[in-house]
Amino acid sequence: MSKRVTTRVLELASQRRSFVHATVVRAQAPASARAGDEAIVFEDGTIDGFVGGVCAEGSVRTAALAALRDGGPLLLRVLPDGVDDFPESPGAQVVVNPCLSGGALEIFLEPMLPPPLIEVVGRTPVADAVVAIAGVLGYATARSLPGGVAEGTAAVVLAGLGRDESESLRAALDAGVQHIALVASHRRGAALLDELGLDAAERARVRTPAGLAIGAGTASEVALSIMAEVVAAVRTGTATGCAGTTGQPEHTGCGGGARAAAPAPGTTAGHPTDAAPQQATDPVCGMTVTVMPDTPHLTVAGEDLWFCNPGCRDRHAEGLVG
Q1: Residue 179 and residue 208: Cα distance in Å, rounded?
Q2: What share of the chain is helix, strand, coil (3-state, %, to 5)?
Q3: Is the per-residue pLDDT at 250 higher than 70?
Q4: Cα separations (Å) of 45 from 18, 103, 254?
């Protein structure tokens, strides 16, 4: 990775932004890109760097946005029409690009997604253990509450055992956090929710007692039960296995609220993303085009048409005139 791209990647990671790192791993002359060329593809489809000419860049943009949605790496093969001497790469996604001016490319697309962010309230042994286990899982943690909720928070764990609970809980609800784990007994948790005057929808987002019913006794075991429930909520939108359990000590147990909502479209593991750009099919060459401000365009009989490059647009316009 070049120094410039490395610096940009670290900057984006610190900002908790999602993007795709694209690297040319193989190129066949006369393709304009060379092995080692690289770029960053942002959520809005903009590209910083170089991975080929206009048509190749368009194919990379479309594939990168799909990889960003799926969350997995992808090897993209961009081939010109009729190529038969570019060695196969099993498992690669192939795009036959009729606009490509010769040559072929293989480009590795690696989505870089910020880890889910968990807000932890409290300086108790349970709170500290939650932070430690979250780190092992690769999750990020913050301790911004009760002052405020960090942007992109996937879940909030209230483990202050009476300290900063009301303010933090209210702030988490107002920020729209869907999974809030309150470490408290059934009785104390219910009393706090009653005191705050929560409506049914708000109460459904609070799980108290927090955590799955695993018979936890130590602070680390309690934290494990809490994080297991958080993982279920963040990854699958579910937190099951808790209903009807009794006999847990105050700091353990299972949440009484409804399941946390699954991540909404346009989000990744609790992190909001920009809306995906519109896609269209080039009526000349049949390529899938990701529509950007500078994408070649015609309006014909009130219908918007988008093209992979100016050549396809001009050929279509000429056909209309003829």
Answers
A1: 11
A2: 30, 25, 45
A3: no
A4: 12, 24, 42
Confidence band for 31, pLDDT divided at 50, 70 and 90: confident
Residue 4, C-beta contacts closer than 8 angstroms, at least 6 positions apart: none
Share of the chain above pLDDT 70, in %: 82
Which of 74, 82, 87 lies closest to 102 in space, CA to CA? 82
242, 254 Cβ separation under 8 angstroms: yes
Is residue 209 reached through a cis peptide bond, with omega within 30 degrees of 0 on the bond before it?
A: yes
**HEC assignment per residue over 161-221:** CCCCHHHHHHHHHHCCCCCEEECCCHHHHHHHHHHHCCCHHHHHCEECCCCCCCCCCCHHH
Nearest Cα to 27, choosing from 52, 8, 57, 62? 52
CA distance from start to end of the chain: 49
Rounded to an integer, what distance in angstroms lies between the CA atom of residue 114 and that of residue 164?
Answer: 28
> In the prediction, which pLDDT does 185 show?
92
Q: How confident is the model at residue 273 (pLDDT cuts 50, 70, 90)?
A: very low
pTM of the model: 0.64
**pLDDT at position 261:** 34
* Residues paired with 280 in a beta bridge: 289
Count H helices and E strands in the chain, helices first.
Answer: 8, 17
| Lateral strand order in the sheet of 117-121 | 140-142, 117-121, 153-158, 180-182, 206-207
| Tokens standing for residue 246 | 């009794």
